Amino acid sequence: MPELPEVETIKNELVPHVVGRRISGVTLSWEGILKEPNAQEFDSRIAGQEVTGIGRRGKYLIFSLGSGELLIVHLKMSGSLLLGWDSSSPPRFTRAVIHLDNGRHIFFRDPRKFGRMRLLKDSTSIIGRLGPEPLEAGFTPELLARLLSKRKAPIKAVLIDQNFIAGLGNMYADEALFAAGIHPLRPAASLTRREAWRLHRAIKQVLSSAIGDKGASVTTYFRPGGEPGKAQFQFRVAHRRGENCPVCGTSLERITIRGRGSYFCPRCQPEP
DNA sequence: ACCACAACCTGGCCGC
DNA sequence: TGCGGCCAGGTTGTGG
Asked: How many CB atoms lie within 10 A of CB A135?
């Protein structure tokens, strides 16, 4: 599932192949992948544009175009962007193909059809509400502690709220809570100052380490060249129900919080 | 402002 | 071999 480390990796690995190229056209194999504008207008506005840069905000990928417009892509749960030379044999579940002027193509593959792309003149409506970027300097322990003190919901639910912090998803929230020794059902405001600081450190560590491993290939995530990431091998609790805790040996548990599977160690992360 | 939940989607896996 | 049920979970919209 693409969270911040996966989207960051995709961005980094697309840049050398895509920035400076022109988009000769886009083929929609499934029109629902385009959120706005309509297909006809999209085609006329994007054809011939140079990609001048690729950025990331939270889990959004942002392609800057020569006209100043932005192509904003969200991969949701099962999307990937794969580079290839042969558009006559796209990967299975390809929903759109972005054709580049050097004969290369970006295949937007997405089995579950949750992913979307849109063409906008201005990104503020999309990313303006997002919380702070957890790997940037503005995300300080003091800021995290202050934000947490205002929220009564379970800390797990708060961490995956994109308006609270941008980019953290289900897997890395579980990993950060384990690293900080905090039970996922603890009310956010109940964290002590010391716990908030531990959590701040854990979030940064877990995300940076996963970027170093080029993301986690738990189910459908692949890098643009088709290779998997390696971060899943570093997971200590996520998707490991029934396995033994790497710290204390206790059997790891899974509970559902806000409809999301939450994995934790009942001993290292004591009940609220 | 905060909180909670349903809906959107479909493939892969497991047990029977 | 087939089939039903579970699991994966980011965002949006709705309502309290």
From this structure: 15
